[in-house]
Write a structure and sequence with these properties.
The complex is a heterodimer.
Chain A: E1 2-13, E2 16-27, E3 31-35, H1 42-50, E4 57-62, E5 65-66, E6 77-80, H2 92-102, H3 107-120, H4 136-145, E7 154-158, H5 166-181, E8 185-189, H6 193-199, E9 202-207, E10 210-215, H7 217-223, E11 229-235, E12 247-248, E13 254-259, H8 262-275, E14 280-286, H9 290-298
Parallel strand pairs in A: 3-8, 3-9, 6-7, 7-8
Antiparallel strand pairs in A: 1-2, 1-4, 4-5, 9-10, 11-13, 11-14, 12-13
Helix pairs in contact in A: 2-3, 4-5
Chain B: H1 2-15, H2 17-39, E1 49-55, H3 60-71, E2 75-78, E3 80-81, E4 93-94, H4 97-105, E5 111-115, H5 119-122, E6 132-137, H6 143-159, H7 161-176, H8 181-202, H9 206-211, E7 230-235, H10 244-266, H11 268-275, H12 277-283, H13 288-318, H14 326-350, H15 354-372, H16 383-389, H17 393-405, H18 415-435
Parallel strand pairs in B: 1-2, 1-5, 6-7
Antiparallel strand pairs in B: 3-4, 5-6
Helix pairs in contact in B: 2-15, 3-6, 7-8, 10-13, 10-14, 10-15, 10-17, 13-14, 14-15, 14-17, 14-18, 15-17, 17-18
The chains are: A alpha/beta, B alpha/beta.
């Protein structure tokens, strides 16, 4: 079931088309990665869903209800901005209480929701500390926690792991996984392609204001660069003659090729190398990465 | 290496308009204000002192003094007013002592001249037995009574030289023996000449105007100005006040710093824009109107607290009589803080960054404070500058505090100042709301 549907969203700023017919669906309980180069339209799309940008055309439906800019219907939506949008002189608890009230959490539920958010973000021990004393990762976690106090069913996160260390990143993804396990749907923009590949059930790639690919990572690979695995062999010495089907890597003892059926084709490759009198020291088989798909779709030109 | 760093500094200066304005524009603006206010002292542009004039004597001598005062270029004389309690546009009646006193008490005029009965008969008696002219003065303007006393001396002496000569000769005859018929005839001829000369003397003349600002101040009451007549300056408001000028400076400084703190607090809106909390607020249940209202309320309460602390310090350290003026103080303080909060929000919504806000607010607040009377009293300013000052926030706020602490005005009498401040608050908030639209949905 789709909880959020964006259809043919269009938005221009003067002569710049930020969104040019973007469409996507977010399914119940899934984590959807929204990827794209800088200026592709990700943030505009998230702002439009959050009600902060007025679409020139197109529609946004949340749980079947059409959303309008400035109108209601976003009570089930939680928004976590890319910036650490918190009050630095307030403590973690004070920030949570403040944002809880601003999101309409009933007074009777506020204390328990704040306690939950502190536990969820692993900040209970620092609840009374002003957040200006927090590390980047702690602030990020609190930033996310402030966006879910009102129990939203759909959460939008803009770059939730930007600028944090691997440990905090892990913790943040654990938090998001817990949300997803509770049935919350998550739409997340990120430039961390490996993380998106590992954590998101589906990926949407947007460029020039348009969705240019969507699906699981495997589906994207199939749609774009194909499912061939990349095989790299390290030899004890260079082969005397070039071996058919191989290309020489960074050094003359490194050979590369691609296979579709690893189990079926790899023994044959090893045999060819052995027949050439070389000994295989190491074998690496790599699946096509999301990064490869992303670059294949969006190109290697800088976007600035 | 040094030249490279110098080049970086110069490029920064060239591209930073705020620094340019602070470094070059602000000093020029301030220099100009001070030059206009203090540089005009002694020149023709000095403001005319507004006085009420009551002639209780009704003698030819007092009539000549009234006429000469009316022609004195250093004074703007008022001899009529509506009856007490009547609307301002009611028919004007000749001023009497009580009405003139009311005009001074109400702050309409700084000084009233009362020419008492017997002035004409006693004029020129050098034995100090003549009638005493009273200057009913509001000494919140300490300059005006002194100027009027000096001008009065000059005008009285030049308005009736023949009467003075006659009185002088009377004294001469009393103590030195009678004049001969020939001497008496010569005296009569001179008197006619002097009488005509007096009429011409009353007209504007370079010497008259040139003498005005350097006229020595009259002594404090009771005083004898010259020896032809006496002048007594009566302080109609401040006799019982412990340290009246403190109230003026407490209000002046408080209002200026209130504006600074209001613009600084308004700048928190820019901080929220920069940190992203404003964006986040607008995705919550709060609207831009709610955000602005919250900011305005905070800055207003902060301002009330700030001014209250200042006046309490004035009370404790300088015997400012705060306790007897609490209602008026609270009313003025609330409306002053409310308008200052609106002003701060306008500046914050107008600027794109904290740095820009800092520069613009410094320029606007210091200029406004100088013109509006926070730095030096407005009665020192030329009329033209004073008129410009009427457009400043400070002038109305200070007028209100002056009315409370100097004139002991009841709360109901503060409606002109409160009205202006409340109106400014509404206007400021509307402007801030319109300017804040740039942060709303795009």
């Amino acid at each position: 079931m789709n909880v959020l549907t964006v259809a043919d969203a269009r938005k221009s700023f003067d002569s710049i088309r930020a969104l040019d017919g973007a469409s996507l669906e977010l399914r119940e309980g899934e984590m959807l990665g929204l990827l794209g180069p800088n200026g592709a339209g990700k943030t505009t799309l998230v702002r439009a869903i959050a009600g902060r940008a007025r679409l020139d055309a197109g529609s946004i439906d949340l749980f079947g209800q059409r959303l309008t800019t400035g109108g209601g219907g976003r009570e089930k939506l939680g928004v976590v901005p890319q910036e650490i949008a918190l009050y630095p002189l307030l403590t973690a608890r004070e920030n949570l209480v403040t944002w809880g009230r601003l999101h309409g959490v009933p007074a009777a539920d506020l204390a328990s929701r704040v306690d939950f958010a502190l536990r969820w973000s692993a900040l209970t021990d620092r609840a009374r500390d002003p957040i200006r004393t927090f590390s980047g990762g702690m602030k990020r976690r609190l930033n996310i926690a402030c966006g879910i106090l009102h129990k939203p069913r759909v959460v939008l996160l803009d770059e939730p792991t930007a600028g944090v260390d691997p440990q905090s990143r892990e913790r943040i993804y654990d938090m998001l996984a817990a949300l997803r396990d509770a049935g919350v749907s998550v739409l997340m923009t990120t430039h961390q392609l490996e993380e998106a590949e590992a954590r998101c059930q589906r990926i949407v790639i947007i460029d020039h204001g348009r969705v240019i690919a969507s699906g699981t990572v495997n589906e994207l690979v199939e749609q774009t660069i194909g499912a061939q695995r990349r095989v790299t062999l390290a030899l004890d010495r260079p082969p005397r003659n070039p071996l058919p089907g191989f290309e020489v890597g960074d050094s003359s003892t490194i050979l590369r090729t691609q296979v579709r059926d690893v189990a079926g084709e790899l023994p044959t490759l090893l045999g060819v190398v052995g027949d050439a009198g070389c000994k295989v020291l190491d074998v690496e088989v790599r699946s096509p990465s999301l990064q490869a798909v992303f670059l294949h779709l969006t190109g290697r030109d800088l976007r600035e | 290496m040094i030249l490279t760093l110098l080049r970086v500094a110069l490029i920064n200066l060239r591209r930073d308009r705020v620094v340019q304005a602070m470094a070059f524009l602000l000093p020029i603006v301030f220099f100009s204000i001070f030059a206009v206010v203090f540089g005009s002292q002694g020149r023709d542009t000095t403001s005319r002192v507004r006085v009420a004039l009551v002639d209780e004597d009704g003698s030819p001598g007092s009539a000549r003094l009234v006429a000469a005062l009316g022609k004195e270029t250093g004074l703007r004389v008022r001899t009529t007013a509506p009856p007490v309690g009547a609307p301002p546009k009611s028919p004007q009646l000749p001023l009497d002592r009580m009405r003139a006193l009311a005009l001074v008490r109400d702050g309409d005029l700084p000084v009233a001249i009362v020419i008492p009965r017997g002035y004409g008969a006693g004029f020129g008696r050098f034995d100090s037995t003549g009638a005493v002219i009273q200057l009913l003065a509001d000494k919140s303007d300490p300059v005006a009574p002194q100027i009027v006393a000096g001008l009065l001396q000059k005008v009285a002496m030049t308005a009736a030289p023949d009467l003075m000569a006659r009185q002088g000769l009377g004294l001469f005859e009393k103590y030195g023996g009678p004049l001969t018929a020939q001497q008496r005839q010569a005296m009569e001829n001179w008197s006619r000449v002097m009488n005509g000369g007096a009429s011409r003397e009353g007209a504007p003349a370079e010497s008259t105007r040139g003498a005005r600002p350097s006229t020595p101040p009259a002594p404090e009451p009771p005083s004898q100005v010259g020896s032809a007549f006496q002048v007594r300056i009566v302080d109609v408001l401040g006799e019982k006040k412990a340290n009246p000028i403190v109230a003026f400076y407490a209000a002046g400084i408080a209002v200026m710093f209130l504006l600074f703190s209001a613009s600084g607090a308004g700048g928190s809106l820019l901080d929220e824009v920069e940190s992203g909390t404003l964006e986040r607020l607008l995705t919550s249940n709060a609207s831009m109107g709610t955000v602005l209202a919250g900011k305005w309320l905070y800055i207003t309460l902060f301002g009330v607290f700030q001014i209250t602390v200042m006046f309490i310090w004035g009370m404790l350290a300088f015997k400012l009589d705060l306790l007897h003026h609490v209602p008026g103080f609270l009313v003025m303080t609330f409306f002053t803080a409310a308008a200052a909060a609106g002003f701060g929000l306008v500046l914050a919504t107008l600027c794109k960054s904290r740095q820009q806000l800092g520069g613009l607010s410094t320029i606007l607040i210091l200029t406004q404070s100088a013109l509006g009377g926070s730095m030096f009293p407005r009665f020192l300013m030329p009329e033209s500058v004073r008129r410009i000052g009427n457009f400043t926030f400070n002038a109305h706020a200070l007028d209100g505090y002056q009315a409370v602490f100097w004139r002991d005005a009841p709360v109901t009498a503060l409606w002109p100042q409160v009205g202006v401040l409340a109106g400014l608050t509404v206007v400021f908030l509307i402007i801030a709301r319109l300017l804040a639209r740039r942060w709303e949905t795009i």
